[in-house]
Design goal:
Length: about 210
Amino acid sequence: MDAPATRQGRETRERILDAAAELIAERGADGTSLDDVRAATGASKSQLYHYFGDKRGLVHAVTDRQCERVVGLHADLLGEVQDWASLRAWADAIVATMEAQACRGGCPLGTLAAALADTDLTARERLASAFAAWREAITAALRRLVENGQLDPTVDLDSLTTATLAAVQGGLLLAKTERDSRPLQIALDTAIQQLHAHTPPRRTVSRPLA
């Protein structure tokens, strides 16, 4: 749906979206009703229908919001990667974020995908596009490692990218389920170790015989 024309309308819509995103993260899409959103925001039923049409429209708007936020955050962090230290900084930021939220919530995209991928084609396609953009950001970071001599230029970047993102998603899911960041830390450490295994060998400089 089109964005509201007035600032007040845009602020109201954003407030509803923020509350709905938080509720869906806690309860899932099926466990969140429009009445729950109304109770959390004080919005009227007419406002909800005006801005989102129905619950499906609200869920799609939340999906779009979370896709934009999560992919944007990781694209910024991965955009700083130039060497192994900055790649580690990206991984450490993921763990720190999970610890800051007491290992609750996990990845918003992973949570939405688990709830919607089998039942909502539109949401699945939007989430698939977001994951594709996330993979592109990882691939770009790994390509810079290749360019900077940190990673072997013959590696299969697509496979390493997929394995790295799978480690992130799996680690976040385990951390969320166990309420412990250690599984996430282990998954990311292992992913980086796997990448390190493709470090190009150091060139030896031959010395002329005396």
